[in-house]
Structure prediction request, 77 residues.
Amino acid sequence: MLSPETLERYRQMSLSERLGLVLQMIRDETPLLLAGPPEVVDRRFELLRRENDLRNQAMLEGLARAKALHERTKQSN
Prediction:
């Protein structure tokens, strides 16, 4: 969890500053993501895939709920 001060600092950054920070983090962390025996790297990527799939499923469910609510609201008016 980020501190309130850090969050505020990020909010005050320009879009290009935030993009630069993200790109630097990718450059710094990619070698670590690929480090280790192939089995460890494979497990790491499988975990990332599972987490992404769960996050995507949650977003799709949220969108479906929002759409259903919108349709119900539209029909009642």
In short: The mean pLDDT is 95. The chain has two domains: 1-35, 44-77.
